[in-house]
């Protein structure tokens, strides 16, 4: 008796002997992709693109930019408006007008009649020129020595420069005055300019700029027989011109705007700098804010000119200090 074993396909849907249809793998895969790509509700999900801002982000950035401009430039524009207002306009009213009703340059002429403004400008330019030249020369030499030359105590000196940034200028102003007085430079423009001829921050800026120059170039120059001054002149200096412009701008602004130190050192009226001389515009019993605003604008003009001339090098120096290539 022979036993026969029959093999049959699995029963699906209650129909015996009927083969199940093959699963549609391609369709299922396409369907799963579509379900992942299309969120519920039929809305397409927007993919974030790098460097492309949405409308909301643009509006937010412009609003923040306007707020920052209002905070930083607003006082300057108001001072400019006040300097152009005539005596017939009330600047103390509850509802002042930003645009002068009758613009006039008479306030600037009155400043020239009240104080020797051109003499004060000349004194400030002398002090600023000494400080700019001193910082460019000495900060460049010090920064190159710390960054490129090998000598004992280099890290200690770098740490001392960093430590001086912690101290405020007022902490050493008495010792500086005693030193200037002992040198016989009190009541002189050289005595005003001497402490600012080299700043620790400028040395650190030059140190950081020289570090961006590849060491392989220096090593190749050494193998060719170049000494330290030749490497500084022909290799390093052409690569840090932007940083030198930054130092020149910072030094000029610092020397031009300084008020406390010239006030302590100088006693002769004919040697006063512009920032100290402008205080004579403020009378004992009466003060004309229009004339003071005009004096402030006169003091601002040289800074604007210097920055306009050196702005291209200034932004180049910022890139040199911020990007290591």
Descriptive overview:
This protein is mostly helical and 325 residues long. Helix content is 62%, strand content 0%. It is built from 14 helices and no strands. The longest helix has 34 residues. It is globular, with a radius of gyration of 36 Å. The N terminus and C terminus are likely disordered.
Features:
about 60% helix; about 325 residues; disordered C terminus; 14 helices; disordered N terminus; mainly alpha
What oligomeric state best describes the polypeptide chains here?
single chain
Mean pLDDT across residues: 81
End-to-end C-alpha gap: 92 Å
SS summary, helix count: 14
Q: How much helix is in the residues?
A: 55-70%
H/E element string?
HHHHHHHHHHHHHH
* Count of strand segments: 0
Class inferred from helices and paired strands:
mainly alpha
Radius of gyration: 36 Å
Low-pLDDT parts are: 1-20, 321-325
Characterize the overall form. Answer: globular
Can you give me a brief rundown of this structure?
This protein is mostly helical and 325 residues long. It has 14 helices and no strands.
